[in-house]
Amino acid sequence: MHFALLGHSAKYVLKTVGLFHTIEDWAPSQYHLVVVNVLEVDALRASVSSAGLPVERTSVHALDQLPPWALALHQSITANTTSGPGAIPCWKLFVPFLPSMAHINNLIFVDGDLLLMQDPRPLWEYFDIFAPSHLLGLAMNHDGITGLNSGVMLMKMDRMRGIDSMWVRALRHGVARLQRRPQVKLGWLADQTFLSLLAGWTFNSDSLFEPKAAPLFGRVWMLPCGWNRQLSIHASQEPNFWPRWAACTEPCRLAHFSGVFCALPRLRRTQALRIPDLP
């Protein structure tokens, strides 16, 4: 099994590896720490052992090592559309094209604010039931109104990889539509907003595609809600929020705190988070 975490810096990534500790307790896996700048790689690699991760099964990757066309496409997606840190999570969309990940066929990308409640092997096994058309596995946002949630993302890397792949065509198609519709903004949660727009979702009456004409129509496998059980109620003022939020009735297997910052100290204690000093 391969799991990945993304951060803008080595220090940030090291603060979020508690989830990997609990995965390791259940099922030893391969771990991928992804940073934006290659200058962070040495510091992060030197801290793997003191962070409590298995050195022989932990890899470090830098996104500025992507091919030039991928760097340019990321810039096209995020320029003038994102706010706050929104451009950073959009790097996840380009991980299949990292030379250092060329050997990986399946990858689960996770946010750092997750608490694992059970053995993750059944989550990995969902790759086996993907249809040939599926590129991604994602859960819905639990407010029922804001599309897909990228906090747990199953990525069929072998299908997404390649400059002429369906995935790259979808990204380019989305960029072309964004450029024609400058009123559409991706905001803080830019990666999942962009994915939702590519799947035909509408936000505040703004959309890029009709659902059945959307590039990701039929390309996303719907992850059961218990594997991304979002606890945030930030949209609770929206009509019918509570019935939608409570619609997930299956057991919570992977809790997603979704910015519920008051819960993070408990999350860190529960996952025995060990944060080393950088060398």
Question: Which keywords apply here?
Answer:
globular, seven-stranded mixed β-sheet, three-stranded mixed β-sheet, 12 strands, 279 residues, 10 helices, alpha/beta
Q: Estimate percent helicity.
A: 25-40%
| Total beta-strand segments | 12
Radius of gyration, CA atoms, in whole angstroms:
18 Å
Mean pLDDT: 89
Query: Which strand order spans the largest sheet, edge to edge or round the barrel?
Result: 3-2-1-4-7-6-10
- Terminal-residue CA separation: 29 Å
Name the quaternary structure. single chain
The global form is: globular
Biggest sheet layout: 7 strands, mixed
Number of helices: 10
> Strand portion, in percent?
15-25%
Could you give the order of the helices and strands? EHHEHEHEEHEEHHHEEEEHEH
Structural class: alpha/beta
- List the uncertain runs: 261-279
Structural overview:
With 279 residues, this protein is of the alpha/beta class. It is 27% helix and 18% strand. The protein contains 10 helices and 12 strands. The protein has helices spanning 10-14, 18-26, 41-46, 68-78, 121-125, 157-160, 166-180, 190-198, 241-245, 264-270; strands at residues 2-7, 30-35, 58-62, 106-110, 114-116, 136-140, 148-156, 202-203, 206-207, 220-222, 229-230, 254-256. The strands form 3 sheets. It has a 7-stranded mixed beta sheet. It has a 3-stranded mixed beta sheet with strand order 5-12-11. Strand 6 and strand 7 (148-156) form a beta hairpin. The longest helix has 15 residues, at 166-180. It starts with a strand and ends in a 9-residue tail after the last helix. The model is unreliable at 261-279 (pLDDT under 50).
